[in-house]
Structure formats: structure tokens, C-alpha cells
Design goal:
Number of strands: 16
Strand content: 25-35%
Structural class: alpha/beta
Order of helices and strands: EEEEHEEEEEHEHEHEHEEHHEEH
Shape: flat
Helix content: 25-40%
CATH topology of the largest domain: Rossmann fold
CATH class of the largest domain: Alpha Beta
Largest sheet: 6 strands, mixed
CATH superfamily of the largest domain: P-loop containing nucleotide triphosphate hydrolases
Bound molecules: guanosine-5'-triphosphate, magnesium ion, zinc ion
Number of domains: 3
Radius of gyration: 23 Å
Amino acid sequence: MVVTRSGKYAARMKGQIFKIHSDFYYTNTPDGVFECKIREILKKQKEKIFVGDFVELEQVNFDSKQAFISKVLERDNYIPRPKVANIDRIIIVSALKEPDIDFEQLNRYLCFCEYYKIKPLLCFNKNDLAGEEEIISEIKKIYTPLNYEMIFTSALEGNGLDELKKFLCGKVSVLCGSSGVGKSSLINALKPGLNIKTKSVSEKTERGTHTTRHCEIIELDAGSNSKIVDTPGFSQLKFDFLMPSDVTFLFREFVKIKETYGNCKFSDCLHETETGCIIKEYPEEISKSRYESYLKFVKEAKEYKKQITFGGKKTESSSKLLHNKTVTKISSKKRVISRRKNNQNIDKDL
Ligand SMILES: Nc1nc2c(ncn2[C@@H]2O[C@H](COP(=O)(O)OP(=O)(O)OP(=O)(O)O)[C@@H](O)[C@H]2O)c(=O)[nH]1
Ligand SMILES: [Mg+2]
Ligand SMILES: [Zn+2]
């Protein structure tokens, strides 16, 4: 029992947020699910709260299942888009057909996993559709040498679901992938009776409209302790948060070429058209679609660098360790509010 800032008695407990809806944070605790609001002080501190966060709760009314979140506990890791914390794995779902596989999008997700150091699993769904053999061999040719784990599934016919379950066991896995690839269908197939809303690709009125709109942690079955997060895809995922030269470290084959054969002639080489580029000397070690994705991501990072350099944006920079190299991360966030200003705001509010 604790006394809150307003002098009331409250029971304090810990829990994990599994869904955020409007201003409500749904939290799992040993005493069941609580519908929570966040304490004003956390709002004032601009504390970002993610699905998957472990939090401290204060229950003021002991007859209700409502509480206030008073503290966010330290995260193991997190991804900012969509906002999910404490993740073991990102499952990148693509459809072999309907919609056609989008290698650029797939590489985007993979690079995102590399950046946030979260283990990916490539899941190629809809393998019940006819004529998928050709595309499967193309996929294997590209991704097997890169040592990414992959599975082929059908939410419709149940192919590969046992294998998928093994990857999920005892872990928190986040499903991501373009709209219509079958993320929600896979969860429905893994947990019959759940009936998450799904929609056929042709029913979607607008390209990119997601049937799933929120992130939610779903417990598959208590026995295996597998949790899965359905997401509306990672919307507008762009490489607009790092420097162009850092994109290299997100591509395993580029890192391998440099480790095996040495460095490019120029230390700031972006492996585009520069002379003495070691990456360009070994084209057989990089697939065409991967290199095209690389060029695209570098272009986005360049745009961002330009904005930072000439746009007069106030930025904060920080460092992050990628493949044992320190890379500079530049965020577009404005400078955080000073502590004095923050206290003044709280005083004003009180
Ligand atoms: N043939 C076939 N169709 C599938 C399979 N999995 C899903 N579908 C169909 O694909 C369509 C889209 O599936 P959803 O599960 O809504 O896709 P989603 O990835 O959750 O889409 P968003 O929520 O919009 O991001 C539905 O009509 C499903 O019936 C599969 O393995 N095989
Ligand atoms: Mg969905
Ligand atoms: Zn180079």
C-alpha cells in the first residue's frame, strides 16, 4: 500500500501493457487485466509508453479493475514504428502471391531488424497458391546465403504452422509485413476461435489500407508461453534517421565483403559509382534486388542528411553500435524540454 501524491491510499503492482486504445492502456497483472490511464506526471515528462512495456500500477479504487500507470520500467529493447517494447523476434511476413512479393519492403524490414538488433524470421505465406515454386527458388537464392531463418506457410491450409509455433515458443514475436499478406490470418490459424478481422486483398478499397489498426499482444497458449503481436505493418518505414554511410552496416553481404576483401579506396565510399569501390568489385556476392534496395535506402538517408544540414532543424544526435562500429544516429526530434521549463509547466497546471 502506498500514499499517492494526492494523499489517497493505493495498491501498487506490476504488469505488462498488451494493448493501447485511445487513452486507455490495457495491462496484464497477476490479478488479471486492468484498464489504466497514465498519471499526469508521466504525460508531463513526455514519457512514451509502448505496447509490451512493463509498468508499475497504482490501484486507487479497490472495487474496480481500473488503475493508474505511475512508472515505466526499463526496456530490453523497442521499435518506434509501430511502438512495441521488449521483443524477442520480428517475423517478417510476405505473401508469395496476392499481393506479389515486394523485395524492397522485405529488405526494409530486414535492415530495420539489423538496426534495432532484433532477430528476424522470414515467413513466406500463401504457399498454397499455384505457381509459387519459381518465386520460392528465387527467395532461397537471395536469402539463404545471408543466413536469415525462413519458413513457408499457408494460413489457409495450415502448412508450416507447426514449424512457426516452434519459433514462437516462449517468446514475444512481432508480426510485420505489408497489408494483405496474411498476418492476422496466421494468428487466427494458430489460435482458432480468436477470429481477428481479416480482409481479402481485392476488398481493400485503397492500397495500403490496413485491416488491423492497432498493435496488440496476443497470448497464443499458456502452456508454450508464446506471445505474438499483431500490427498494422510498419507504416512509412523510411531510412530517414541515419547517415548514408551507416546503411552499409545493415546489409550483411556488404559487411562480409568488407571483412573478406578489405575497404574501399575512399573511406566515405557509398558504393554507388565511386572508383576503387570494393563492393562494386564483387557483384556476384550481392543480388540485384538487394543492391537496388541498398541504393534506395542510401538515397533516403541522403535526403535526411540534406534536411539536417541545410534545413536548420534542431537535432539531437546519439551513437549506436552496429556491427561493432559506432554509427551516428540523428533524430528529427526537437530538443527535449528543459527540466526547469517542465517543472514550471507542472506548477502552472497544479
Ligand atoms: N490463399 C491464401 N490466402 C490467404 C492466406 N493467408 C491469408 N490469406 C487471405 O489474404 C487476405 C488478407 O489476409 P489478412 O490476414 O487480413 O492480412 P493482414 O496481413 O493481416 O493485413 P492487414 O491487417 O491489412 O495488415 C484474406 O482474404 C485472407 O483470407 C493463405 O495462406 N493462403
Ligand atoms: Mg491484419
Ligand atoms: Zn565502396
